[in-house]
Amino acid sequence: MDLVRYIQAKDIKSWLAELAEDNTVFAPCYEGEAVVFAPFDPKERIHLPTPATVSPKKTIFPESERLVDFTYSKDPEDLSRIMIEGKENIPKGTAIVFGGRPCDVRGFSMFDRVYLAEKNTDVYYKARRENTSFITLACDSTESTCFCHWVDSGPCDSNGSDVLAVPVEDGYLLKALTGTGEKLLGSSLLSEGESKVEEAEKVCKKAAAELGQPPDLSQAPEKLLEVFDNMEFWENVSAQCLSCGACTYLCPSCYCFNITDEAQGMQGTRIRSWDNCMSALFTMEASGHNPRPTKAHRMKNRVGHKFSYYPNLHDGVTSCCGCGRCIKSCPAGMDIREIVLKAIEFEPAVIEE
Ligand code: SF4
Ligand code: SF4
Question: Which ligand is nearest to the CA of 278?
């Protein structure tokens, strides 16, 4: 049997304080009314009953990061020659992400297929990914926006986590899933967990039952390609969209970035920042041409990428973890589920001869 332990809810902060002695511990903390992942501070409140407003994406893929510091200099032998010396800022140190949900952790697996690919491995992402562990909080209830079960996951999915914490009476059952997870459960604040296993299983079953049966998405990749050129379809489904980009920033599986060089005099820094495919400027070319000139084109790209192009490249895996944040936080009430289902159900009009 996997190692299982139990912690009382009142001891969680003391446990995190112990873990924070040797690691940066990220936990769901308040930032105004929003709940975001930030370095744990024992003086601050943490929020565990419901998923954080923002996913923990930035713990491994920061909104903005300095990739390289560089210096220009002139070759004293040939002043027309400019030399550049760069120093990479490879992230160091270990981190623990506490309180992300199964869907959040699944989001990183979508990054992995791209950023840890054998060719073009992203060394910055890799360094953080390898040095970060996950103590994931299973969901004991679901929200109307949750649809992790559409994408082969669920409220107690343990994939990608080192420890799964299942809420039980007055505390959490902690299940180690990896060797790292076992080490994380060494604290004297934890007690035996076997007696809570049955209760935890009931919690997981109840949450899964709340979600009901998922629709069949197996046709989604093909159907989305079939409506690729149907701009009337995309104009209809994107009509309410404000192009604000909130959906992309909150999404645990959106991984587009932009690179800028910021230089002053002979020194500078290469910076990577999150990009936003819903922005009108996303694919704007230097010539002024934009291959995705309208929000309909951009919505097509966002939904198509997640439910068609990515799965077609990566063994059918959907690049959406069903967290529902884009639905919950969209100021225009857009629902990505409705768009996917409309594409699946779409039948072209039959023209009578
Ligand atoms: S959050 Fe809603 S309104 Fe904003 S870009 Fe996304 S779909 Fe459009
Ligand atoms: S597309 Fe929406 S539901 Fe899917 S992972 Fe991103 S934010 Fe979550």
Answer: 1
Distance 234 CA to ligand 1 centre (A): 14
The encoded tokens of residue 230 equal: 């149907």
Over the stretch 249-295, which tens digit does the pLDDT of each residue have?
999 999 999 999 999 999 999 999 999 999 999 999 999 999 999 99
Ramachandran region of residue 265, left (φ > 0), alpha (ψ -120 to 50) or beta?
left
Q: Residue ranges of the domains in the chain?
A: 4-345
Cβ pair 184, 162 in contact under 8 A: yes
DSSP sequence for 36-70: EEEE--TTS-B--SS--SS-GGGGTS-SEEEEEEE
- Burial of 290 per CB tally in 10 Å (0-12, 13-18, 19+): middle
pTM above 0.85, yes or no: yes
Smallest CA-to-CA distance from 134 within 187, 174, 167 is with 174
Cα–Cα distance measured from residue 74 to residue 281, given in angstroms and rounded to the nearest whole number: 36
Q: Compute the distance between CA of residue 137 and CA of residue 146 in angstroms, rounded to an integer.
A: 15
Ligand nearest to the CA of 244: 1
